[in-house]
């Protein structure tokens, strides 16, 4: 039992060192950006269409970022995804945003997926997967959770 406590202390030491080193590095010149995603999702039957516009409030530009979209239900095995998007799991697709200028918008991402089984409602979660090494201190606007009903109506986020 004593050995477990000693290992826990040793395991915590590297984490404390990493935090202490990472803190000043951010203040010392790591670029900072404030990414956001706005758009809409429409579900009709087993198909969901998502239109997503990435943005950046700056202060630094981002050469490339990627956004992760996760559905609460599995996607069909076969998907036809647009260029720049790849399926990374049973319910997950990641899309590149391209360059995001400081205080500007990126190119819209139009993504249509087929759900494995029809559902009366699906939750879509959107989040930044990668941001080219920039720090985003305001994560509230690059994360969204949208309940989309099978009505054919657009649900805006």
Model description:
The protein has 157 residues and is of the alpha+beta class. It is built from one helix and ten strands. A hairpin with a 2-residue loop joins β1 and β2. The radius of gyration is 19 Å and the shape is elongated.
Q: Ranges with pLDDT <50 over ≥5 residues?
A: 1-26
Residues in helices, as a percent range? 10-25%
Q: Termini, distance in Å?
A: 50 Å
Q: State the secondary-structure class.
A: alpha+beta
- Which overall shape is indicated by the principal axes computed on the Cα atoms? elongated
The biggest beta sheet is recorded as:
5 strands, antiparallel
Oligomeric description of these chains: single chain
Output mean pLDDT.
85
Number of helices: 1
Total strands: the figure is 10
- Gyration radius (Cα, Å) is 19 Å
